[in-house]
Amino acid sequence: MTLWRNRELRQHVNVIDGTVAPSTILTNATYLNVYTNQWMEANVWIYENRIVYVGENLPEETTGTNFYDCQGKFVVPGYIEPHAHPFQAANPEETVMYAAKTGTTTFVNDNLTWYLLLNKKKTFSMINAFSKLPVNMFWWNRFDSQTILKDDHVFNTRDVLDWAEHPLVIQGGELTDWPSLLTGGDRLLYWIQEMKKLGKPIEGHLPGASSRTLTKMKLFGISSDHESMTAEDVLKRLELGYRVSLRYSPIRPDLPEIIKGLLDKGLSQFDNMSFTMDGPTPAFMEDGIINVCIEKAIENGLPAETAYRMASYHPARHFNMEEEFGSIAPGRVANINILLDKQNPHPESVISKGKWIKKDGEAIPYPSVINWEEFDITSVEFDWELTDEDLQFSSPIGMDMVNDVIIQPYTIVSDVSADQIPSSKSEQFIALIDKHGKWRVNTIIRGFAPKLGALVSSFSATGDVIHIGNSKKDIRIAAKRMRELGGAIVLVDQGEILAEMPLPLGGVMSKNAMEELIPMNKEIKKVLKAHGYAYEDPIYSLLFLSAFHLPFFRITQQGLLDVKKREIVIPATMR
C-alpha cells in the first residue's frame, strides 16, 4: 500500500538531510521496538503524518518544530482493532473518534451496513470521506448478509469484485455463510479466491468448528478467525495455520480465561494472535476498545511487551501493512500512544496520523467530517401505520430465547389472541415489519423481557422494525414514538415511555455523542433487566434475532427460519 506520493517521499528524506524541519519531535522517548521486543531510548521525528526518524540524534533544522518531552514516559504504537463493527447503534465516526482518545487509532471495519443503506457509488464516496478523519479507517468486503433477505441479489459478483479492488478494503469476510462452501457454493469460493489474488486475507466466522471443518476452511482459503471461546479453540486454530483474534466482547468476554489457559499450557509464542472487541456497544466501550483488551491480558499474566505487539504489529503484519502500521520505525504512519507506565495501556497522550488526539490527558476536539445528509442517510420516514391486523398472532411455532445467541423453536400452547399476555407466562408478541411497510412476520417470543409492555426498535440486522411486548396497547405507543423520532429504540410499560435511544441515521445509527449514548444504552439495559431481561446485551439481542449464523431459529425478512435446514418454516405475510 502506497500512502505517499514521490514528492512527499522526497520531502521526508529532506528532513533527514536537514533542509526541512520535522513537524513534531518526541524527545527522550522510551519506546517499544516491536522487532527486537525491547524498550529503547530514542528521539522520534514526525513529519506531518509519518515517522521519519527514530534514534539518538536531533535534526539540524527545527524551525516551527513542536517538541514534546517523553522523559519518564513510555511510547508504544497506536492500537489496531482488526475486526470492528462500528455501527452498534452509534455511528462509525463517533465510535472511532471516541475510541481514538483511548489509543485505538486504526480500525478494520465491517461494510454490511453500507450494503443495506446505500448504493455502491455513494458508499465508495462515504468510505473515502471517512479516510479524512484523523484516524485510520479500512474496510471489509462482505460476502453475505448474516440473514435471509427478500432480495437475494444484494451480494453479487460485480459489486463484490469492485469492493475487493478498492484500496481501503483490506480483507474479505467475515464469512458467516461458510456452510455454503461445504455444499458447493462456487460463487462464494470464486469471491474468496479473487480476494486472495489481491493479497487480502479472508476472515472466518467459525464458532465451535471441528478440526475437520477448520481444515476444510483452510483449504478453501480462510486466513483467520475470531471465534475462539477457549484456549483449546485458539491452539486448534494456530496448529492449522490460522491467525487468531482473542475476543473481549459484550457477549463473549473470553479473553481473560483464554490468556490464563494459554499460559497454563506453557505457550510462549503469541506472534499470530491479536485482540478484538468484535463490535462493542456504547456502554461496553466506555473505557475504550483495544486498550481494555491489553489491560485484561496483562492482568492475567501476559507480558506487557507481548500484549502491545498483539495490539499493533501483529494485525498490521496480518493485513500485509507492516511497512505502514504497527510499529515505531522510520516510514510508518505516526500512530503513537504515550503511557505513564509500561503496565498501564491507557494512554495519557495519543497521536494519530501525526495529529494529537489527546495530549497530557486532555482530548483535542475535532469537527465532524461526515455530512450524513450528503449521503442521504437521514431519519426514516415511515409512511405506514401499525394496524390491528399487524398485531394478530396465530403462528403455531414461537421463538424460545435460551441465552444471548441461541433461540430454539417451541410449540405455542398459550392463548395469544388477547390484547395482553400475562407476564407470568414469559411470552411476548413479536412482529418484524418491513421498514417500507410491505410485509410482516408475526409470532411469539419466550424469555426476552416478559414483564415489559413493549419494545419497538428500528435497529435490527436489516433496518426493519422489531415490535416486542406483552401489551398491544404499549406496542402501539412505542411504535408511534419510534416513528416520531425517525428511527429509535423505545421502551414502554403501562402506557409510559421508560427509555429511548433516537436513531435518526437510517433508523440504525445515532447522531449523539458517545458520552450521551453510553448512559442511554445503560438505561435501556437497566429497564429491560427490571422487566425480566436475563442476558448480557440487548443491542446484540435485537441484532441477533435475524442472524442465520446462530442456532437454531430466527425471524427474517422471508419469514421464520430453521437455521440448520435453511428452510422458511412460516413465510412472511404481505401487508
TrEMBL record:
<comment type="similarity">
    <text>Belongs to the metallo-dependent hydrolases superfamily. Adenine deaminase family.</text>
</comment>
<dbReference type="InterPro" id="IPR026912">
    <property type="entry name" value="Adenine_deam_C"/>
</dbReference>
<dbReference type="InterPro" id="IPR006680">
    <property type="entry name" value="Amidohydro-rel"/>
</dbReference>
<dbReference type="Pfam" id="PF01979">
    <property type="entry name" value="Amidohydro_1"/>
</dbReference>
<dbReference type="InterPro" id="IPR032466">
    <property type="entry name" value="Metal_Hydrolase"/>
</dbReference>
<protein>
    <recommendedName>
        <fullName>adenine deaminase</fullName>
        <ecNumber>3.5.4.2</ecNumber>
    </recommendedName>
</protein>
<dbReference type="InterPro" id="IPR011059">
    <property type="entry name" value="Metal-dep_hydrolase_composite"/>
</dbReference>
<feature type="domain" description="Amidohydrolase-related">
    <location>
        <begin position="74"/>
        <end position="357"/>
    </location>
</feature>
<keyword id="KW-0378">Hydrolase</keyword>
<dbReference type="Pfam" id="PF13382">
    <property type="entry name" value="Adenine_deam_C"/>
</dbReference>
<dbReference type="GO" id="GO:0000034">
    <property type="term" value="F:adenine deaminase activity"/>
</dbReference>
<feature type="domain" description="Adenine deaminase C-terminal">
    <location>
        <begin position="424"/>
        <end position="566"/>
    </location>
</feature>
